[in-house]
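ok so I'm stuck.
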Amino acid sequence: MIAVEHLRMEYGDNVAVENLSLEVPRGEVFGLIGPNGAGKTTLIRVLATLLEPTYGDVRIDGIDVLAEPLRVHPLIGYMSDFFALYEQMRTWEYLDHFARCYGIERKRRERLIGEALELVSLEVRRDAVINTLSRGMRQRLCFAKSLLHEPQVLLLDEPASGLDPAGRVEFREMLKQLHDMGRTIVISSHILTEMTGFCTSIGILEQGRLLAAGSVGDILAQLQSGMRLDVEIVGDPAALVGWLESQPHVEQPSVVRNRVRCRWDAPRDQLPALHRALVAAGFEVVSFAALDDNLEDIYMRISGHKTS
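replied:
not stuck anymore, here's the structure
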């Protein structure tokens, strides 16, 4: 559905996207993950025909985005990370205004507005003036606007930013419904926990480069290296750090909330020997847990950045 090859985007001397290639099959929910400034917004704006890249080939449903943007527009629904609203309009008037811009005839317009308001749980506020809506409602209204013309592809740039936890859960449920309808969704975020629960595939961006892409399971399988140990003892954990630093297969021991965390790069079946050595060295072990890398661990390791 979406194909990008060798995309490069320059802003003066700054390279925002560098030699990026990816494919998003029809019906996928593709999450773009990366810190602020990684190139997520630039990529989404190129897909939305809002930016012309320095070079590269970008196609949606086989249509060249750069050569034929007007053919692409009916296929895409775009939601920016910054949205402006007509404050004095009523909710339904705002949607009706944009539906008219899409050239949708009246009866179909009424149906689509009703369906969009129902999906975003704003049907009871259809007559409310926009400046009386909460931030979460306003955000859902902007999302509804992107759905009016029934696009096949949704391009969502940090759509849940600023929402409280309940609002984020509601937003994920809306996206799941659209995924069930067969929509292709590209969504960006710097919050990993937002993405892993419902994205069918992800891409990790760092300084304009795509570090990894694929299903969450594939990325974990490809990039997982060793596991994490979490050990709690009676007494000063700093003493345990010093002891672990002298042990083979143990890397980066450190104290985190009165526990010691480190990496273990040997097979799991060798962990009992490490546990016995701990006890033999005189440490009173309260807990000893081995955890496989999760997506955040892998992201931090390959990018060198922490994320929310």
